[in-house]
Structures are given as C-alpha cells and as structure tokens.
Amino acid sequence: MPEDGLYGVPGGAILVEPGLYSTSNFVESPIPGLYEVMGPLMVTALPDADPSPRIRIDLDGLPANARVTVFRFWDSSEGTVRGALDAFADGSFTIIDYEAPIGTPVSYRAAIYVDGEFVEYTNTATATLTEDPSYAWVSDPLAPGRAVRVELRTDFAEKLTRRREVTKHRVGFRTIALSGPMGLLENVQLSSQVKTLEDAAKYQEVLDADVVLVRAPKLLRLPVLLYVSIETVNEIAQDVQYGGGWVVWDIAADEVSPSPLNITIPVVTYGTYSAVFPTYADFNAAYSTYVDALRNPPGD
C-alpha cells in the first residue's frame, strides 16, 4: 500500500488513515474519439509540519497535452489552487495546496481543456485538515516553505472591524445615506506566541512577506483563509533574556486580497533532486515520469 494511505479499487479508493479519499466517478469525454475515460481526481490530506498542513491533488488518465484548472471549495467560498490555473498536464497532474483551509471540509474539482477547448469537469473529492484550536498556521503564500505554527493568545482576533464609505445627504426634513460595500477586516489583533527561538526566527521570516496567510481555527469569526498586510510588528521577549525561547507577538493586520501570482519559491526544487541524484541517469532510474518525481520527492 502506498505511504500516503490510499490504494485503488475498481471505481474508487479506500480511506486509510492518515489520507483522505475521493470516489472516482469516471466521465465520458464529450469530444468523440478524444479518449475513452478520464481517470479520477484524488486528494490526500497531509497534516504534518513539512512545511505545514496541506492537501495533495492527483489527476491521472488525462489526454495528452491537456491543461487543467483545479478549483477549491470550502464553506460557501470557492477559488482556484495556486499553481493550478490553466496548468499543463500531459496524461497526469499533481499539485499541493499549501493554502487549504484548516478545520473545515475542503472539496476539489478540475476543469480539463484540450487545444483551448473545454472538455469536462472531473469528479469532486473532499479532504479535511485538523488542528488544535489553540494554534494557527502563518505562512508566506508565495514561498510556502516559510511557515510556522503559533499559539493563539486570549485576545487573538478579539475585536473585528470593517468599514465602508458612507455619504449622508439632507433631503428636506430627511437625512438619507448612500453606502458603499463593506470592506475587509482592519486592525485585526493577531496576538500570538512561540516557545522556541527557532520558531521565532521562522515567524520573523514569514512576517517579512508582502502578504501573509493566517489559517486559524474555524471556531473564530475570521475567514479560514485570512490574507493580511502587516505594517508594524511588536515582538515581546518573555524569557529570552534568561536563556528561554518564549516570544509574544503583538501584531495589528489589515485583511487584503490574495496575490494572483504563482509560487515564487517552491518547497521542492531542482536542488532537492540533484543532491540525491547527481546524474540524469540516476534520476531516470529512480522515477518513471516527471509526475512520479513530483509525487515522491527525495526524503518524502
């Protein structure tokens, strides 16, 4: 059985912890003669901290020279997976969603295109990442290897503020108001702490990003994917001066829209493979396809 906890059976997959599954709902192509059956979209929850909880999406049985867009659905929201918007897929495709919400079911579906024409949607697959509600994950969406698990303090997101533009007009004896749409969250208190200097260094590196992603427990009245801009960071040492690693972070952040860019600093790089496989012959002996290498990087 593969290490990710999934093994195939006719018509689907079986759930074996720690992975999560998708049933395979094969669909016929609407373009006659293109291909007979499209393989299933399968998802696997990866809850470890390497570098943070994430979900892997795998697609097989695709036509040659296909392009795919993978959609993410959670609660009443939807979006595309970073790096999987009109992405090239030659028979197979895999992508890791480092921005998967935590603590709520997340569903995925892919749209398949060939020669610029829409072919079909895949089946929908669902997975859930869980976390201790006393903690959140903070990361750089464009460099997902930069991530840290932080403990929430009692005043974390205690007060939530949204504004909108309002113009008041006096009309005779009446006062009327013309209001714009409600804005995003402002001045959110992200009071949190870490207990080691290693995590403090990670946190500082994450906070240097233009846009920071906070994945907090769903029980809070925050978006489960909270993208923020941070102007000022207050770092308060609790016992560092005595040789400890306890640091409190007093941060006020403003919610912003996520960046449309793809990942700029990937977790797995060319160096990840070249360090283990010094020649192309060594690499080709270890992996049958490029997608196989993506799904099974060295040390994974």
Number of separate strands? 22
- Cα Rg: 23 Å
Number of separate helices = 4
What string gives the helices and strands in order? EEEEEEEEEEEEEEEEEEEHEEEHHH
Mean pLDDT: 86
- Report how far apart the termini are: 15 Å
Poorly predicted sequence stretches spanning 5 or more consecutive residues? 1-37
Q: Please tell me the CATH architecture of the largest domain by its name.
A: Sandwich
What's the CATH C level of the largest domain? Mainly Beta
Q: How many discrete structural domains?
A: 3
Structural class: mainly beta
Summarize the main sheet. 6 strands, antiparallel
Can you give a write-up of this model?
There is one protein chain. The strands form 6 sheets. Strands 5, 6, 7, 9, 10 and 11 form a 6-stranded antiparallel sheet that branches. The protein has helices at about 195-205, 270-275, 280-285, 290-295, and strands spanning about 5-10, 10-15, 40-45, 55-60, 65-75, 75-80, 85-90, 95, 105-115, 115-120, 125, 135-140, 145-150, 160, 165-170, 175-180, 185, 190, 190-195, 210-215, 225-235, 245-255. Strand 15 (about 165-170) and strand 16 form a beta hairpin. The protein is mainly beta and about 300 residues long. The chain contains 4 helices and 22 strands. The protein folds into 3 domains: about 5-130, Immunoglobulins (Immunoglobulin-like, Sandwich); about 135-255, no CATH class; about 270-300, no CATH class. The two termini are about 15 Å apart.
